[in-house]
Amino acid sequence: MKETLLAVCLACHGAGGVSQTPLTPSLGGQPSFFVVAQLFLFREQRRDNVLMNSMAKDLKDADLQALADLISKLPPPPRPEGKPDAAKFNSGKSLLAKNNCAGCHGTDFSGDNNVPRIANQREDYLLKALRDYKSGRRVGYGNAAMPETVSGLKDAELADLAYALSMFGR
């Protein structure tokens, strides 16, 4: 049963949890607790995503935990191939340090517990998430750190952050 639920997730989030779908995050390597929390928010329609709200609406608490356990065991997304744009990458790395992003997401940006893995995540998805936090459209779960962190950043800076994280480790 839980493998069937995971297959439904991977139909959009990509084989092995590595998304090839625009604006759809890779799930591989996400911390179990974070996944449970996100699925709960979708199930309770607290996240603004009609498709995910619909997909999660009938999930029981045991389903949330089972899916989270499976997802957390998927390997994280690989580093993208190719040479990054040095100026954009370095700008993003500087912003990561200036805003102490590693303080919550870890020095390797792999996340922990209720904090997501953001290293090597899809750039378009990261940028959307950052913009949504800045606008107040994306809710967290009792943590105002993200909206506060991004509130003073310009859109070009958000783009550089997303770019650097998507290329992390290069």
Tell me about this structure.
This protein has 170 residues and is mainly alpha-helical. It folds into two domains: 2-73, Cytochrome Bc1 Complex, Chain D, domain 2, CATH 1.10.760; 86-166, Orthogonal Bundle (Cytochrome Bc1 Complex, Chain D, domain 2), CATH 1.10.760.10. Helices cover 54% and strands 0% of the residues. The protein contains nine helices and no strands. It has helices at residues 2-13, 32-43, 50-56, 61-73, 86-98, 102-105, 123-135, 145-150, 155-166. The chain is globular, with a radius of gyration of 16 Å. The model has no long low-confidence stretch (mean pLDDT 93).
Give short descriptive properties of this protein:
170 residues, Cytochrome Bc1 Complex, Chain D, domain 2, 54% helix, mainly alpha, 2 domains, 0% strand, single chain
How many structural units, i.e. domains?
2
Note the run of SSEs as H and E.
HHHHHHHHH
CATH architecture of the largest domain: Orthogonal Bundle
Mean pLDDT: 93
Structural class from helices and strands?
mainly alpha
The 3D shape can be described as globular
- Strand tally is 0
* C-alpha end-to-end distance: 38 Å
Number of helices: 9
User: Which segments are poorly predicted (pLDDT under 50) over 5 or more consecutive residues?
Assistant: none
Give the DSSP E fraction (strand runs of 2 or more residues).
under 5%
Oligomer: single chain
Main beta-sheet strand count, sense and barrel state: none
Task: Quickly name the level 1 CATH class of the largest domain.
Answer: Mainly Alpha
Estimate percent helicity: 40-55%
CATH superfamily of the largest domain: Cytochrome c-like domain
Rounded Rg: 16 Å
CATH topology of the largest domain: Cytochrome Bc1 Complex, Chain D, domain 2
